[in-house]
Specification:
Layout: E1 4-7, E2 10-13, E3 15-17, E4 22-28, E5 35-38, H1 41-62
Antiparallel strand pairs: 1-2, 2-4, 3-4, 4-5
Length: 101
């Protein structure tokens, strides 16, 4: 199973509390704080799914956009000065030459 649960593109940790004698998790990589707990892994996963479903329903009811985890895609900006007809070649801007001959 690994150290994470995944549901609808959300990832969550799986941890154990000795003091409380329970499993708990926290949804990761979003700004909102979503936590939950259960006594078995099956219960923890079920409650994780319910937590995500409730979160998305609450966001929709409030008319707000839910936090979503990062996609993992990297959007690279490519300024004109780096464009080249030869792949892998970077053209730096030319410095003005001084007229001290």
């Amino acid at each position: 199973m690994g150290d994470f649960l995944k549901y609808k593109s959300f990832l969550s940790s799986v941890e154990y509390s000795v003091d409380d004698n329970c499993l708990f998790g926290k949804v990761m990589f979003i700004k909102s704080l979503l936590t939950y707990e259960g006594e078995t892994l099956q219960e923890l996963e079920k409650i994780f799914h319910q937590t995500i479903d409730n979160y998305l329903a609450d966001c929709q009811a409030e008319g707000i956009k839910p936090n979503v985890p990062c996609s993992g895609d990297f959007a690279e900006r490519n300024p004109e000065r780096f464009k080249s007809s030869s792949p892998g070649v970077i053209h730096e801007p030319q410095r003005p030459q001084s007229n001290q001959d």
